Amino acid sequence: MNRLSTRRQLFKLAGYSGLALSAAAALVACSKKEDAAATAQPASAASAAPAKAEPLKIAFAYVGPVGDGGWTFAHDNARKALEKEFGDKISTSFVEKVPEAADAERVFRDMVGQGNKLIFGTTFGYMESMLKVAPDAKDVKFEHATGYKQADNLRSYDSRTYEGAYLAGVIAGKMSKTGTLGVVGSIPIPEVIRNINSFTLGAQTGNPKIKVKVVWVNKWFDPPQETEAAQTLINGGADVLMQNTDSSAVLQTAEKNGKYAFGWDSDMTAYGPKAHLGSAVINWAPYYIATVREALDGKWTAGPGKHSWWGVKEGAIDLVSIADTVPAEVKAEVEKIKAGLKDGSYTIWKGPLLGQDGKEVLKKDEVADDKFLSGINFYLKGVDGKLPGSK
Known about the structure:
Layout: H1 3-13, H2 18-47, E1 56-61, H3 71-86, E2 90-95, H4 103-113, E3 118-121, H5 127-133, E4 141-145, E5 154-159, H6 161-175, E6 180-185, H7 190-204, E7 211-216, H8 223-235, E8 240-243, H9 249-257, E9 260-265, E10 276-282, H10 285-297, E11 307-310, E12 317-320, H11 328-343, E13 353-354, E14 360-362, H12 370-374
Parallel strand pairs: 1-2, 1-3, 3-4, 4-5, 5-11, 6-7, 6-8, 8-9, 9-10
Antiparallel strand pairs: 10-12, 13-14
């Protein structure tokens, strides 16, 4: 007899005997307990399964648009590489065109408020804003690109872009017919000055008498100003251009004028295929992947002096898409230098080296350490013009 029929029969008998009613009540109660036990069992089994961990929320602040084709584009490519590497273990987001000003602090605080536990600030000018926010969000990990200050939960990282500039210079010195090269500079901080000097050193390996002219635009991303600066350099006799700005405007200007140029930060071949000699690119993915893995594994650490500076050796810097117009022997020389940078047998900044004023900055066989390289605020011999802010 099924459970429902049993209940009906018991209720009929209840009219004849109080004892029968009590028995019926007891059986119904027993039936309810059985039902509850049957219902509870699947829930109990479900609770035994381990709860899925929440994804690590990661946010990026970009100084330019993701479509700039250069600096920000390179960072965003690395963000996408993170998603491919870690899948649903992480969740990423970004805010583009964040100015290097007080507004950056608001953006970082908003990222904290949205529950992000790892935040990347991807330009030098965010340093002070991140230093203000980090102490108020101790449970958040902060990473600052190209900076030099750290905190208990803030560390800094950089790429040895000067290695890419040097490799470009090796080609530029061999390809120039006028003996004059041009660089469009962004902001005169050690990072950019170091790149200009390294480009000059590379060019001098092929032509010790080469001259490098510089026009500063005082911005990272301003295509109209970059175009104007590039045209000024070409009008001044430069036939090969490099840049330390974020757009493709310099390469495009060289293309229109029948001159040569290099891509910067990302592969810019498509923006000026006839002018393009190669692109000095940054691959942020190795560092970002290593950092996120540390965070997921509970091994991420920060504090004073916690700074990473990766280059050719770590796969963070390269010169890619070298043009067919570059002679085979020059390409071979570039590859040889890359190999030397990778295994440590080749040194770019090695004395004797003279400053623009003719004074020795590195003695014979002296090798510049990272402290020296981080504080460069002078032009080397071979760079024309006055450095902004110098006496």
